[in-house]
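Please describe what follows:
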Amino acid sequence: MPPPHALELIQSREDCELRSETFFCNLSPAALTSFEALKYPMPYSEGAVLFLEGQASRGIFVVCKGRVKLSVRCSEGRTIILRIVGPGDVLGLNATVSGTSYESTAETLEPCEVNFVRREAFLAFLHAHGEASLRAAQQLSADYSRACEQIRSLGLAHSAPQKLARFLLDWSQKGQETKHGTRVRLTLKHEEIGQIIGTTRETVTRTLGEFKGRKLITLHGSTLVIEDRPALENCAGLN
């Protein structure tokens, strides 16, 4: 029987399209075999919660297919999206290693496949395989650097247009270059973009309209095209 939402479960790393790129996929054969025995492949529908902010750590989640948003709630009750993650990302690593609660809430943005590894089993795995412990340290370091860069980028932006321009430029880094500009899929709702850059849905909608009116971008459905990158970079305060 096919899994929910027709997701084809990845039962083995040999079947993983991101084998050479994901965090745990380049381990030695012995370590990889040990890790394979620990994971539980699990399909999730859109809007499913993997873990909640403040919840005691149960283990790590390795995203294989789909996208997941990590968010926190501030004292005013607003939601702030910290990151949008995808295949190859490891979630809950810091809480699992340190024995603390999850720092954020992880919610799927679309049907996903995620491999779950229980905390006790993962810690024993790290203890038995030094190379995996090094990978964990590298991942935590990368997460810290990414958080600092995000704070720096948004903190130095003084206006909503600057923040939105920086977000669009960052989002388009993995886009496809065409004769019309950089094309990339942008499936986030305006409210979600606002939660990432710290502004309202109405401001995002209005500013996107201004960018389109100035021929900086085009946006048809979920297809975003950066038509005038230098001008958008200037708007972002990067020139």
Notes: The first strand starts at residue 40 and ends at 44.
